[in-house]
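Quick one, tokens below:
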């Protein structure tokens, strides 16, 4: 993804390109970014989207709100007891956890639709370093298009298009404006 333009500070125009051998050109879509901007020095709780190139690890989806998306990426259904640890002091930091979990965490099974489709990206995960950011995903955008807590958010149709074009080995590049 590379920056194109934007009409709201937290929503930019982005373009992604398929890295496939067929030479396909990809598409363009608006996305919401972190309320803390885009930063190369992402820290836990700063609300920033990390700058860099990150592998697309896998897809998570909520099966009661739709089928598994068409994608070549590994894909798994989430359940009501799924969470993601965001406590830098916990050994499970920036890893999926089962709820209840004694340390700070995000619930993956949300009342809103933001995590109905999620791409887990390889940010601070190999291995996780405490305090350098957790639970940075590509997920669905808020109804008002507002900023995220540090993720990249797309409209459902755009995220489904991205997933259909994505393959193992593809990366997401996030650049500072």
């Amino acid at each position: 993804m590379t920056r194109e333009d934007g009409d709201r500070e937290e929503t930019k125009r982005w373009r992604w390109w398929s890295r496939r051998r067929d030479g396909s050109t990809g598409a363009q879509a608006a996305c919401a970014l972190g309320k803390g901007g885009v930063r190369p020095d992402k820290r836990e709780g700063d609300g920033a989207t990390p700058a860099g190139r990150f592998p697309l690890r896998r897809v998570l989806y909520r099966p009661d709100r739709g089928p598994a998306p068409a994608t070549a990426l590994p894909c798994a259904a989430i359940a009501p007891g799924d969470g993601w640890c965001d406590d830098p002091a916990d050994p499970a930091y920036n890893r999926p956890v089962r709820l209840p979990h004694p340390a700070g965490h995000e619930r993956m099974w949300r009342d809103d639709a933001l995590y109905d489709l999620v791409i887990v990206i390889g940010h601070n995960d190999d291995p996780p370093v405490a305090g350098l950011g957790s639970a940075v995903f590509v997920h669905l955008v808020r109804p008002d298009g507002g900023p995220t807590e540090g993720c990249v958010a797309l409209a459902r149709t755009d995220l489904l298009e991205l997933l259909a074009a994505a393959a193992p080995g593809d990366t997401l590049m996030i650049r500072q404006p």
